[in-house]
Specification:
Shape: globular
Strand order of the largest sheet: 3-4-2-1-5
Number of domains: 2
Largest sheet: 5 strands, mixed
Order of helices and strands: HEEHHEEHHEHHEHHHHEEHHHHHH
Number of helices: 17
């Protein structure tokens, strides 16, 4: 994997991980504290205190036991109420929303103290999210490049066989309208070239669909573009999705080019394969748009009617909103308990400074 644009190396991430108790089954780093999301972030001359916060996800088979050990080792990571009420309370709070307990804005590391936000998730909940997209909270983070620290063979397999397959299939179906615009009504029977960056941007945007933080301006409006176009990211995305794109090419659905994918997203047989590769909830919500009765009028030509393409995009977007929105709201509300009022305000201010209030705060 490319190291271009990586601002926190493996040794430092491993050192940070050593600050936590054993019992972690899967762990990875992500976000602007690991991979630069602007050219400025990647500057080696940046003072330590100005480096972006490192985001970590830690999966554990026994959250209550792990939090108990972590309370003894790192009590200052927890806000007042969870610290007083103990691991039973913490693991109960963790189960709400997306099933993740975040400790944000803590200083970790011995070589240099880095600001870290780490989320703890139960191993079985992570498995379910990868397989079913029931909230797509951590699964959505895993649509983008991450830096593996502890690898569970089981999670790695589910990531490839379910989560990434779902992501590329959903993204391609959402890009179908592009073929109508580019090819026109007379050209929809042939394949078009879609820039590989557009596909990765569509993939990256899935987990932000319906996220209230985006609507409120608490996320950088250029977040998706930065995720794909910052230094080294395109190579990382290619590495993440190489197997899935290769799988679709071997099936004859697309042709890989140097910086593009040639595919006919209006072809019924192609769309049916992509639909069958959606997660159960999205497949169920769009089933009526892919049934034999619904596509019967288009079967002779093998090309789906243009109005069905637009409707599919609308239904998929609504379905993603129903998945992402509730979990994101619940996780935000939990922050007042897990992070405490003071850290919640600081964290929200930092988020807004990258979003709607950029240039003001």
């Amino acid at each position: 994997m490319s190291i271009e644009g990586q601002i926190t190396d493996q040794s430092e991430l491993e050192e940070i991980l050593e600050s936590f108790p054993d019992g972690i089954s899967h762990a990875f780093g992500y976000g602007s504290g690991v991979f630069a999301q602007t050219d400025q972030d990647a500057q080696t001359s940046t003072p330590d205190e100005e480096l972006p916060m490192i985001d970590l996800i830690l999966s554990t088979p026994n959250a209550q036991e792990w939090h108990g050990d972590n309370l003894m080792r790192n009590p200052n990571h927890y806000s007042f109420i969870p610290r007083i009420l103990g691991p039973g309370f913490i693991s109960t709070v963790q189960k709400f929303g997306a099933g993740v307990y975040f400790n944000p804005m803590v200083r970790v590391g011995s070589r240099r103290k880095r600001i870290v936000k780490y989320g703890v998730i139960d191993h079985d909940i992570l498995k379910r999210d990868l397989m079913e997209w029931d909230c797509m909270y951590i699964a959505g983070r895993m649509h983008k490049p991450t830096h593996p620290l502890i690898a569970s063979d089981e999670i790695t397999m589910l990531q490839q066989d379910y989560n990434l397959k779902y992501a590329i299939s959903t993204a391609l179906l959402l890009l179908s309208e592009k073929q109508e615009i580019q090819g026109g009504r007379n050209g929809i029977g042939i394949g078009i070239d879609i820039d590989i960056c557009e596909i990765f941007e569509a993939v990256s945007g899935l987990s932000y669909t319906g996220d209230p933080r985006v609507a409120a301006g608490a996320e950088d409006p250029k977040k998706v573009q930065k995720l794909v176009h910052s230094k080294g990211q395109l190579d990382r995305f290619r590495n993440v999705y190489n197997h899935q794109l290769g799988r679709l090419e071997n099936m004859g659905l697309l042709t890989m080019k140097e910086n593009a994918v040639e595919i006919n997203l209006m072809e019924i047989s192609t769309r049916n394969v992509l639909h069958n590769s959606l997660p159960p909830n999205l497949r169920r919500d769009t089933e009526h748009l892919f049934s034999h009765a619904h596509t019967h009028a288009s079967l002779e030509s093998g090309i789906v009617a243009h109005d069905k393409v637009k409707l599919t995009t609308q239904v998929l977007t609504e379905s993603l909103t129903k998945i992402v929105g509730p979990a994101a709201k619940a996780q935000s509300a939990k922050g007042l308990i897990t992070a405490g009022v003071y850290k919640s305000i600081r964290y929200a201010a930092a988020k807004f400074s990258k979003g709607a209030m950029k240039g003001i705060l």
